[in-house]
Amino acid sequence: MSAERAALLRRLAVTTLQANWEHDHTVPSRTLYPHQWSWDSAFIAVGLAHVRPDRAWRELRTLFSAQWADGRVPHIVFNPALPVGTYFPGPVFWDSSRAAGAPAAATSGIVQPPVHAAAAWLVHRRAPSEASVQALRWLYPRLVAQQRYLTRRRDVGGGGLACIVHPWESGVDNSPAWDGPLAGVPAEAAVMRAYRRHDIAHAAAAHRPTDLDYARYVAIVAAYRAVGYRDDRLAEQPFLVECPLVNAALGVAEHALARIAGVVGADPGPHRDRAARITEALVARLFDPATGTFRPRDLRTDRLVPARTVLGLIPLILPDLPARQVGAVLAEACSPRFGLAARMDRPLPTHDRTAPDFEPLRYWRGPSWVNIAWLLWRGLRTHHRPDLAAGLRESMCDLVARGGCHEYFHPDTGAGLGSPAFSWTAALVLDALAEG
């Protein structure tokens, strides 16, 4: 990549992040997502570390200030300055204030992938200072509480992995991986007539989850809300799945916490032990040797989900993933299903592009997302594949150079889709540029 092109990309990314800064956090988008989102803030902090480390720490501190007493970090922290109807489902729908242990701030009642410890470590590594050490001291017990919540309260399957109770908790909302588990959730598309979806006012309906998807999402939230978001009653919930992305992030978080512990004067040993156990459980419960990929496990049926999605590649981020699984994941990633290569003709899709239900326009059912590519890029570097990592990095940067900092991209043409000024796209391209 030329120095001129890199400088242009950097300016675009910095401008996007500056425009989306909202006094103590960054909104993912000024149009589609006007509040603070959990894993968005972690990715955003990674990028901000290169230009405004003070804001990177503020981002994480603001998010964790809304942590629940049980350790969960909510997937949305609502901005009280915005009108109630700005986003659906908003604070009135979630009604979190009535739940035991909820914070004073209005939040959702579910979580997102725990990528925050790894982000905090990267921010410190990018811009080490006394201020960053103090920030880690404040964050460390809160990150530990987040891990404890997921590994203890969410281990419904009893095999050492956290389960998700809603597709939104995976971060990949309408992935084909959830079609089977969602099929048993009773809901009708007509349910959505009672609500106003704001997403399809800013993006084409053909690019977003369907009304039936949303009806099921609403039904799942309603069931969880009805029990006060209590995890001692998870067996009653209609959607219970062990997700490869969430659990790979859980394992990586323990590796990051071991490093953070060394900085703040805590014992790194327990984190290393927990990281090893999570990786072992992930391989035992979610790796499918017949196809050589990781798959979510539907705890309602105790079966692996058949869809071959990009979720199956994400465990490559685990530094202690066994060689057999590393080789299998690389073979899957480099197959025609995903097309990873040292020189990529097309961007990485989120679903098997040879599958009959591959949809190149619809959200997580095919389109390319920079955060997923970035995670896999880091995994490739961890497992000493600089050739493939360089190809993926070039593909990420090329998407933004041609289409801008879009929310996601067409997996064939690279055309920008969703929000045109999306924060984590900007942030993660900044990080990729810095590692060039």
TrEMBL record:
Record keywords, A-Z: Glycosidase, Hydrolase
Stated family: Belongs to the glycosyl hydrolase 63 family.
Pfam family, one: MGH1-like_GH
PANTHER family in the record: MANNOSYL-OLIGOSACCHARIDE GLUCOSIDASE
Transmembrane regions: none
Protein name: Mannosylglycerate hydrolase MGH1-like glycoside hydrolase domain-containing protein
Chain ranges of the Mannosylglycerate hydrolase MGH1-like glycoside hydrolase domain: 33-425
Domain of life: Bacteria
Key word Cell wall biogenesis/degradation present: no
